[in-house]
Amino acid sequence: MSISASDVKKLRDLTGAGMMDCKSALEEANGNFDEATTILRKKGLASAAKKAGRDASDGLIGNWVSDDHSTGILVDVRCETDFAAKTDDFQRLLKDVVALIREAGDSATQEWLTDPAGPVRTRVAETIGKVGENMLAARFVRYAGQGYVAQYIHPPGKVGVQVEFSGVTPDVAKNPAFVAVAREIALQIAAASPTYAARSEVPADVLEKEKSIYRAQMENSNKPANVIDKIVEGKLGSYYEQVVLVDQPSIRDPKMKVSQLLGDAAKSLGATITVSRFARLKVGETV
Fold it and tell me: What CATH number is given to the structural domain containing 272?
């Protein structure tokens, strides 16, 4: 039967579901509003749209890493309360979202993740209907085929770290000493929250901004230009220690930098190991 635009709008107003979902439900229900509403509720779409405006700042980080550590996934799935995050329904949702990203592989993008008609949003809507809270898969990180992937999820699961190492041979990957170092680096990122893996990654404009701030601080010092330059470089070194992973003091031993930790590991393992990239996801974080 033919479904009018006014009928679709009426069902949308009643349920809060999307226009196309409402049209599809009415067609399936042969124009019966009660039956169409039931169809939408079963799919979780009616309650999902109604709750979409509510703040979802709690949740958990889901994760998966392949047996050979060549591929890893982190995903930030959010809900309104910690209580909901602990439910079996939310735990299943977390696993299913990770599985959907795995299945999509290289096709998984941020746009794919948040597509209202996509598989992730549809799966999330089902759990919203059951649990009664707004939920969303906010963002994800997937590394694949470019190195050894290590992960760390900080209890109770609100912070997750994924690190990709280069220079890791199959023999090194099996070495317990390397596994321990990889975990140590992931812990470092979780605790110290660096922004860049190496100094070379810091954008030139960011460095110039920092330098200009330091020079402005010295503006009325009457110090010679060469002295000011040395002071600026010293302050820049302190800046690197805050934002660059390899320049940070180790959380285990502040007298040792992360670069030294990696260097010592390389010597003992007989391989040059570097951090090629990393991600740190925290639930509720604004990005």
Answer: 3.30.479.20
The CA R_g of the chain, rounded to the nearest whole Å, is 25
CA–CA distance, 221 with 224 (Å, rounded to integer): 9
pLDDT at 287: 65
Residues 177 and 259 in one domain: yes
Q: Angle, nearest 10°, between helix axes 33-42 and 19-28? A: 120
Tens-digit pLDDT profile for residues 34-64: 888 888 877 766 556 666 667 788 999 999 9
Name the pTM for this structure. 0.80
Domain limits for position 67: 55-144
Task: Report how far Cα 26 is from the mean position of its chain's Cα atoms.
Answer: 38
Residue 241 is predicted with a pLDDT of: 95
Q: DSSP of 123-138, one letter per residue?
A: HHHHHHHHH-S--EEE
User: What number of other Cβ atoms are within 10 A of residue 274's Cβ?
Assistant: 16
C-alpha to C-alpha distance for 243 and 202, rounded to whole angstroms: 9
Q: Report the candidate in 176, 177, 169, 159 with the shortest Cα–Cα distance to residue 278.
A: 159
Instruction: Detail the DSSP E strand segments found in the chain.
Output: 58-65, 71-79, 136-144, 148-154, 159-166, 274-282
- 172 or 13, greater pLDDT: 172
| Closest to 154 (Cα-Cα) out of 192, 181, 127, 98 | 192
